[in-house]
Design goal:
The structure is a homodimer. The first copy, chain A, is an alpha/beta fold and about 300 residues long. Chain A has twelve helices and nine strands. The interface between A and B is large, with 113 and 113 residues.
Chain lengths: ~300, ~300
């Protein structure tokens, strides 16, 4: 499909792209690079690339598809460094959870001869690093492409086919809308999970041991999300500020209302909300985006 | 262990207690009752009791251990109805997520000859009804006993042994402290999950289809919790108001601070919080209260 694919940043997503590209036979050659010498050495052993390059510039040379998969705070310097080495006609893409800031940071450096198509695979786990990747991470999940106005149609098609080859379903979306949708489905949920895990840690009257022992009452689900990569998430919140604050404003309004219902003992309003939210869960399961197994199937024993 | 155990309320928890009691051979006979005729008929077929009684009064007659496992809003009337029929020397217990309100509603009706020991198994799934129960639900999880001052020591020991026989670890706790700990580890997390799923449903700029498709970015974890039984959760919030509002107040303070960090672009503060919360996740896994598998193991494929 591509003669050479270059993956810059070999963490959970970069390594999973390597595995999925090999599984799908989507590239004649996969070159990888990571800023960390240690990660480069570990990645070389894991074998999800054909070669680990000593620099990003070397990795992208002659590549038909270049994928940025570092935390987005690194994109600007990286784009500036690799831009002169990109092959004419190549596709430059990324995997960042924010798209407006990526265009702001990367687009100014991209040569006219290169097709820059921002993208975002909606998949992940709470683990990070090259060992965390696996080939099926994107299977059945969605990847969103956010091409700029006037983007080359056949380049967009090729990138779409690449992601489908990695197992994903593909949707095209406008940049600002992507950033708002992700603020709602990902960024604010993570912020809230980080926050409540922080509250539990700080609450004087409840010991950390109690929080841990009795976490199966609901809290443990939040800790999974709040265990995600800190650098990646710092960069997301620094770069999607407006959409995050907008959704958070709505969340806060709704929480104030719910707080009032609890204070007033408004059982009917509570019951109605709790009934409505069940329907959304069922839709997610019907859409194949989650398992119907109780507790996500993690307690499988003699059920 | 007991000649006769009576389970009143045959939903997820009641049916799981039946299964676990049979597995552990903890009772000579298990009698069950549910207010719903339909549930009684389904439970009779499932066989996790030896007999389904036509009334709660019949179920508790001659029982050595009576377990209330209905939503806690039903306890008061139930306690009043069964109290005259309880055997002298019997243990009366429950499984409610709130303990202060349970004592308020139940204790006034309990005859002096009966040992009333409130309890709370910290286990569950997002499913409800008699079909949702299974024998291993309590394995490795904690059950908290909150005996009243002056409770009979050997009755408390017997109840402890019963729960251990069901696979649980047992801890004894003071009532008000239980209600605060659970507000932190369970009630407020559920309230927040219900709230954010509600916000996503109401947000005009993002369609429900988008929320569902892109839920794998974090949101889907919240929907599992927000799919829990509406009646049970309504009753919890109506009956643990003070502790819930106290913890929610702390959550809101912390969220305001986090919101300010996002607004100010305070990357270091965000990074530090996100790093701290990872440690709590690791402690929960070490304590055996959750799986270390990525995404709770729900995406198991070729990993």
């Amino acid at each position: 499909m591509f003669n050479k694919v270059a993956i810059i940043g070999l963490g959970l997503i970069g390594s999973s792209i390597g595995h999925a590209t090999k599984r799908g036979k989507l590239a004649g050659e996969i070159a990888g690079f990571d800023i960390s010498e240690d990660v480069r050495a570990r990645a070389a052993k894991l074998g999800f690339t054909d070669a680990i390059a000593p620099t990003a510039e070397d990795a992208v040379r002659d590549a038909d598809l270049v994928i940025l998969s570092t935390p987005i705070g690194a994109y600007k310097n990286l784009a500036e460094a690799i831009a002169p080495h990109l092959k004419a006609g190549a596709i430059l893409t990324d995997v960042g959870s924010v798209k407006g800031a990526v265009v702001r940071d990367v687009a100014p450096f991209v040569p006219k001869s290169v097709h820059f198509i921002p993208a975002h695979p909606i998949a992940g786990t709470e683990f990070s690093g090259p060992e965390a990747g696996f080939a099926s991470l994107f299977d059945g999940r969605w990847t969103i492409l956010t091409p700029l106005p006037g983007a080359d149609g056949s380049a967009v098609q090729n990138l779409k086919k690449f992601w489908q080859g990695c197992g994903a379903q593909v949707e095209v979306m406008e940049i600002a809308h992507h950033d708002l949708v992700l603020a709602m489905t990902s960024h604010v949920p993570h912020l809230i999970a980080y926050n409540i895990v922080g509250t539990a840690h700080d609450l004087e009257q409840v010991t950390e041991g109690e929080v841990i022992k009795f976490s199966a009452s609901g809290f443990r689900d939040f800790t999974r999300i709040a265990a995600s990569d800190p650098t990646m998430w710092r960069d997301i919140f620094l770069n999607n500020r407006e959409a995050v604050l907008e959704v958070l404003g709505r969340f806060n309004e709704d929480l104030s209302r719910l707080q009032r219902w609890v204070r007033d003992g408004n059982g009917q309003a509570l019951f109605d909300l709790f009934t409505q939210t069940r329907a959304i869960r069922r839709s997610i399961i019907s859409a194949g985006q989650d398992t119907a197994a109780p507790n996500f199937g993690r307690d499988k024993k003699d059920q």
